[in-house]
Amino acid sequence: MTANKWHKRTQAVHSGIRRSQYGEVSEAIYLTQGFVYDTAEAAEERFIKIEGDEFIYARYGNPTVAMFEDRIAQLEGAEAGFATASGMAAVNGALMSMLKAGDHVVSSRALFGSCLYLLEDVLRRFGVEVTLVDGRDLAEWEAAIRPDTILVFLESISNPTLEVIDLKAVADLAHSHDALVVVDNVFATPIYTYAIESGADLVIYSTTKHIDGQGRCLGGVVLGKRDVIRGPVEAYLKHSGGAMSPFNAWVMLKSLDTMQLRIDAQCDTADKLAEALHGHEKLENVIFPGHPSHPQYDLAQRQSERGGTVLAIDVKGGKEATFRFLNALEIFTISNNFADSKSIVTHPATTTHQRLTPEHRATLGITDGLVRVSCGLEHAEDLLADLMQALAQV
Questions:
Q1: What pLDDT sits at residue 52?
Q2: Which domain holds residue 152?
């Protein structure tokens, strides 16, 4: 039985195994920056062409990192992956490896703050033309994508307002102009992903989130066809220094063992919290793709089995009332991460998106009352009670 016939829970435990001569059960950590050669001729030959499980330098590749890359690629349904030092290193690597001055990019405008910075500041500074659109509006995509558009970039579910993009429709539009489709897929999760089957050419994850999912290590990965990953993506990342460390790769490997169990539990909790909070008198809105009140609920249901592990709430009364709510929470942790085993709340207007102008935040739907709620592994009833007692103090 081949690995591509296994269920994801099985793939997440067994895919990509490389055992040493000792036959270890748990994946080995190869904490080495370099590798030795029997002869000068062997070194010369390896630098000309790397074959099989041969390695040169940890920035180029490492056995532990390779195991993680193979396993996450198997889960995603991709041919190959390149693991990076962080999620933003993956975004940067995917975009910079494909673009040059004079190229045109179309991107959804509802993005994580660092992604917006990379597009609006960095790429434009290097002569790349960037057009931002309302990702929910296919007419805007169609109007913006041109014959000279090199790629489109989007978050399949946006951070932090949880807008859902019709990925297949956008991919079809992009491919009709021979443009690549690059998708940040972190909210969809590697378990309930639909990116590649919908037409994504490159899929990006911050492995810090659901993959580690326990608040320990930074990491990222770019996934796609082998000739692209082992071609321009690898060339850029190995020379610019964005590679994942072997220790972090080992942590990610061991986290994959329990990832689906964690994500399923977190999705269950998100479902319960969204249903219980909907219509609360202290809230302007509850935003969750898995709840019928979401404006793109039907699309979300067609694209994915689950609504995800994160919801957003808009507290009435603006920043002052929202800070009272946040400070009253007892179980939820105030932080700027998400998809952790600990439940986390984030106030995007003053943290992840604080560098944006109030007008820009308003365009994205980031109000002073918006709170991103990431569901952890605590009991759902305890989390709901915590949210309710904190809302009572608003």
A1: 78
A2: 3-256
